[in-house]
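Lab notes, practical 5.
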Amino acid sequence: MAAESPDPSLEEALSPEEERELLLLRTEIEELHIERWKQKERGAALIKEKEVLTGKIQEAIDLNLSHDLFQQAAVVKEMEEATEKQWEIVEEKKALRSRMETEIAELNQRKKEKLRTVENQSGYYKLLDKVVKKTKFAGVEELINHLQNLFHMRDKARQAENDKLEEIDQNRRQLLSLEEQHHMSMIRKNYDLAQNQTELEKCQSEERIWQQRWDKIQETATKKTMMVGQLKMATLNLYEMTGGVVGEGGVDINDTQAQLDMIVDFIRDTENIIKQYQLSQQQKSTKRDTKVSTGTN
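Output from the prediction step:
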């Protein structure tokens, strides 16, 4: 069976490497065809020889011939096995040929697809050619290079924009974290402030209590100071009433203790004088009473 001749239009769309691969596949397929034909001929000859030998073996068995004929039968059996192996090789060659035909069909399909792609893109090329004629570019390739540069610049701008957006997003996350930390710090400070306010109110309450006590102490001290002043004035008056002298030749006006001592001495002296006077009066009264009682008797 001869291989199908390839389409010349498809060969024009294949690359040199694909053409070499296709040529090798064709050569292998032709070799397989030749090998298959040879195998068929050898197989037919072996079949005929097998039939002849089988007949001879049967005759030898029937006639109980010598051992040499049985050896020939063994040789025939080996030849049969070799023939079967040859047929297996032929089948493998068939499978290989089928795979190669499939690959050739795939290559042809790829070639057709490339042709369709070229045909579809030819309109774009014509459009670019028209655009080039209306611009300052010398050719389509220069326009394509310019567009590629623009695309590259666009990609760089997008990447820079994405980097900026990522940086902004990162800064936003940091800001949220700082705000959260600030919020927690404010909560702690407000808690500390509340505790300090409570302690301050407690201290102010204690301060008011102590202030009241201090005012009372000052009031008491003032009263006592006034009382002491009054006592000093009374003591000074008593001292002067007892004939005490204040100033030069006497007691200092502020020396209340000395004044009191002299007043006490004056009182003691006065008491002694009164006691002596009362004692003398009692003695006189006793004498008078005695005289009266004696005269009466």
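Observations recorded by the TA: The longest helix spans residues 140-241. Residues 8-134 form one domain.
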